[in-house]
Amino acid sequence: MTSPLNVPATQARWSPRLWGTLLVLCAAMFLDALDVSMVGVALPSIATDLDLSTSTLQWIVSGYILGYGGLLLLGGRAADLLGRRRVFLIALAVFAVASLLGGLVDSGPLLIASRFIKGLSAAFTAPAGLSIITTTFQEGPQRNRALAIYTTCAATGFSMGLVLSGLLTELSWRWTMLLPAPVALLALIAGIKLIPHSERDNTHRGYDLPGAVTGTAAMLLLVFTVVQAPEVGWTSARTLLSFLLTALLLATFVIIERRSANPLVRLGVLRSGPQVRAQLGAMAFFGSYVSFQFIVTQYMQSLLGWSALQTALAFLPAGVLVALSSTKIGDLVDRFGTPKVIVTGFALLVAGYALFLRVDLHPRYAAVILPSMLLLGAACALVFPSLNIQATNGVDDDEQGMVSGLLNTSIQVGGAIFLAVVTAVITAGGGAEGASSPQAVLDHYRPGLAVVTGIAVVGLLITLPGLRRRAAAPQPSRVVATSAGVPTAEKVVVRD
User: Fold this and answer.
1) Which stretches are transmembrane (predicted)?
2) CA 223, 418, 231: angle at the middle one, nearest 5?
3) Nearest to 459 by CA among 286, 271, 272
4) Which option is the CATH number for 16-207+264-490: 1.25.40.10, 1.20.1250.20, 1.20.58.100, 3.90.1300.10?
5) 277 vs 453: CA distance, rounded Å
6) Whole-prediction pTM
7) How far is the C-alpha of 373 from the C-alpha of 352, rounded, in Å?
8) Any idea what DSSP says for residue 102?
């Protein structure tokens, strides 16, 4: 299945319509990345305005992540079955409506619901948009050029989200929710006119809806149980029953995948050591960073008294470093191999989190905050592309999409689960809301930061065994964008 605009690898100039199509797809990825980063700085203002507890507040982040990660695999299959253009445009329209509703609601549950719907829609726009690129631009320099532009927009969205959030939150946190709506609407109108029609894959035997339902339900229930456990008790009948039901759902998911003619995840792929390390490493990496951002934005605004804009600018060096170095990582991987690059990145990640543990009630930007952000930016630039390359190396061409979807799912679900765990830690014993002094508030945040550091250490330990394996021959790589909005690289393949 190919696009009517399919561009030969030898064609040097792109038509205006081709540029327009690419820009529409870039706008959608820009919005996905923007939404991941923009909400973080606005959380303290949202909590104050809607009177939300810390445990409820984290669901504004987790709702989007779970919606995104839960249906990424199904989103890719739906694009193949129903048509990439149709799936992309419908999901983009839903994203615009959910953005509008998110800025108008006056209750925490409704805001969380709008964020969850936005995550679901992004789970369909991301794989559909990327597959439109891979079927429009042939493998080689033309596709690499298109993907480089696509990735730059993702990195820019992630970095600009922090600054835009700071600026808009100075007016009202609602503007951070409303901003994506008009951008998505303009992209939708342009997409209707510019994105080419593509044939449906009538030979496709279907997609694994039972697997998608059971897998998503299991992840939702797991995170809900972890979040609620501190309030109802870790050994309470409700908590134990929820964990048991989660295990049953996961077991059902495994049975469905083993028997399905078209499974969402071919379980045999997880017999590979590098594959398992890539998946678990992705969970640890993104889970630790989302949790870190959740704690630090509250620390900076609640304890240091920084404005939303000051908080955003404090995070900006990490995002800028990722954007500037995103196209250079492929050369490092070719020279040293993914295991060494991943381990180095995780070591920098641990160092950045450990350094931030030195924060106190007085701003120490030059000595603690800035060095921590630079370490985290360098770690992000090294780890995310390398994990993607490792996950896709040695995988058959007809399973590349499945493995890429699995990696993105691991990223999003890992973020949701570890954020829930860290939130449970900082809200234990009454949490920061019940603290009697600023120092007591910091004492509640510090164990959460220690857990974040511990998650990164676990990620480092998971990836270390890869150093014992003989480095494989370097694979050609390309730059693409993960669902978190952070640049990655993967082997160039065409499934259609």
Assistant:
1) 57-75, 87-104, 116-135, 147-169, 175-195, 207-227, 239-256, 276-296, 308-329, 341-359, 365-384, 405-428, 448-467
2) 55
3) 286
4) 1.20.1250.20
5) 19
6) 0.75
7) 7
8) H
CA quadruple 237, 243, 246, 250: dihedral positive or negative?
Answer: negative
- pLDDT by residue for the chain (496 residues), tens only, comes to 445 555 554 555 788 888 899 899 988 888 887 887 788 778 888 988 998 887 778 788 778 877 887 777 777 777 767 778 898 999 999 999 999 999 999 888 999 999 999 989 988 888 788 778 767 776 555 765 676 566 657 666 766 777 787 788 888 889 989 989 999 999 999 999 988 876 554 545 556 778 878 877 887 787 677 767 766 777 889 989 999 999 999 999 999 988 887 777 778 888 888 989 999 999 999 899 889 988 998 899 888 888 877 887 888 888 788 777 766 776 787 788 889 999 999 999 999 999 999 998 888 888 999 999 999 988 988 887 788 778 777 766 556 556 766 777 788 778 878 887 888 888 776 555 556 688 888 888 999 999 999 999 999 999 999 888 644 444 444 444 444 444 443 333 333 3
CA 36 to chain centre: 7
Token pair, residue 206, equals: 């279907």
Angle between helices 180-194 and 84-104 (to 10 degrees): 160
Handedness of CA 184, 403, 352, 345 (dihedral sign): negative
Could you please report the per-residue DSSP string of 442-457? HHHHHHHHHHHHHHHH
Contact 286, 383 (CB under 8 A): no
Torsion sign across C-alpha atoms 265, 268, 272, 277:
positive
**Calpha distance 268→265 (Å, rounded):** 9
**DSSP-derived secondary structure for 389-453:** HHHHTT--GGGHHHHHHHHHHHHHHHHHHHHHHHHHHHTGGGTGGG-SSHHHHHHHHHHHHHHHH
Residues 18-24: contacts with CB under 8 Å, at least 24 apart: 18/136, 20/190, 20/193, 20/194, 21/132, 21/136, 21/194, 21/195, 21/196, 22/133, 22/146, 22/149, 22/150, 23/190, 24/187, 24/190, 24/191, 24/194, 24/195
Q: What distance in Å separates the CA atoms of residue 157 and residue 44, rounded to the nearest whole number? A: 21
Which tokens sit at 152? 């730059």
CA atoms within 13 A on the CB side of 29: 31
Residues 463 and 281: beta-carbon distance below 8 Å: yes
